[in-house]
Write a structure and sequence with these properties.
Strand content: 15-25%
Radius of gyration: 20 Å
Largest sheet: 5 strands, mixed
Distance between the termini: 25 Å
Helix content: 40-55%
Number of helices: 10
Structural class: alpha/beta
Oligomer: single chain
Length: about 300
């Protein structure tokens, strides 16, 4: 019999959920509203409803694997802090104990960015995987440092929060997020706003404003990545986020910017990769975290 796991990626707007096997294969999946803006208790109602739905499909499920917005205490599975503007009354929620008591299944909980990073951590034979830093670029910038397959949490779970790292007189995400790129293009063109997709469509049509803005954006990105690599010296640096689907355009220009900004000995030893799991990364990483934690609790 195939072991199946209930996996849910909890966001302030949506829940992405599915049934996964131990090796990360997705047997079924779906998406629904999380109602997070209505508060943690309302969000948890939706989580419980989703679990009941998945248990109806897989009554022999082996566990509940969760990735969630907010800072997480992974040992006791509670929410250390959640932005009250996104999910009010979620801070302090003892998610793990509530769900284990109700459903009689083991439950493990990890931050969504860190779960997504675990999903991208290489597991293939022959690939160097000792130290890895994963950066996600979107509205802001998130990060996660993984050593020997384990997420490094830090004193309060904040290890890897490089979006707030000082770079060139401001913080990194104000220079190198997708938001920052779009804001720069909109300013150059005198527009109220523009999407990341439209920026790269502009590049394909030869728009100089878009081309120059992306060059500046990648230069800022390389500065931040260079700082991280000089401090942590990871074997592999993985970049994710919706705009990174433009790898063909981004990769050679980012590599050139990194080559200029990083000490050559560190740059030459670094493997730069682009994330591959897309919107499923949260669920896959939640499963990997669950299996890790359950193994550790058995020791």
């Amino acid at each position: 019999m195939i072991s199946m796991y209930i996996c849910i990626d909890i966001g302030s707007t949506d829940l992405k959920y599915g049934l996964l096997t131990a090796d990360g294969a997705i047997l079924s999946q779906g998406k629904c509203r999380s109602f997070g803006s209505q508060g943690g208790p309302r969000l948890m109602e939706e989580v419980r409803r989703t679990i009941r739905q998945l248990l109806a499909e897989a009554p022999d499920a082996q566990g509940i694997c969760l990735a969630t917005s907010g800072m997480v205490d992974t040992e006791n599975g509670s929410i250390l802090y959640a932005n009250p503007k996104q999910i009010p009354d979620y801070t302090g929620m003892p998610v793990k104990s509530l769900l284990e008591e109700e459903f009689g299944l083991p439950c493990e909980l990890e931050n969504d960015v860190k779960a997504a990073a675990l999903a991208e951590y290489p597991t293939e034979a022959g690939i160097e995987k000792d130290d890895c830093f994963v950066m996600t670029i979107g509205t802001g910038i998130g990060g996660c440092y993984i050593h020997d397959g384990w997420v490094i949490q830090g004193a309060v779970g904040g290890c890897g929060e490089i979006g707030y790292m000082p770079v060139e007189g401001t913080i990194f995400q104000d220079l190198a997020s997708t938001t920052a790129l779009c804001r720069d293009v909109a300013r150059r063109k005198g527009l109220p706003g523009i999407s990341g997709h439209a920026v790269f469509e502009g590049i394909r049509s030869g728009d100089e404003d878009c081309i120059q803005a992306v060059d500046t954006w990648l230069d800022h990105m390389a500065a931040g990545i260079g700082i991280v690599c000089c401090v942590l010296d990871p074997h592999r640096f993985i970049i994710g986020g919706g705009v990174m689907a433009e790898e063909e355009y981004i990769r050679p220009r980012l590599e050139e910017a990194l080559r200029k900004k990083m000490p050559s000995i560190i740059y030459e030893a670094l493997t730069l990769s682009f994330a591959r799991n897309g919107n499923n990364a949260g669920m896959i990483g939640a499963l990997r975290h669950f299996l890790q934690m359950q193994e550790r609790r058995r020791l």
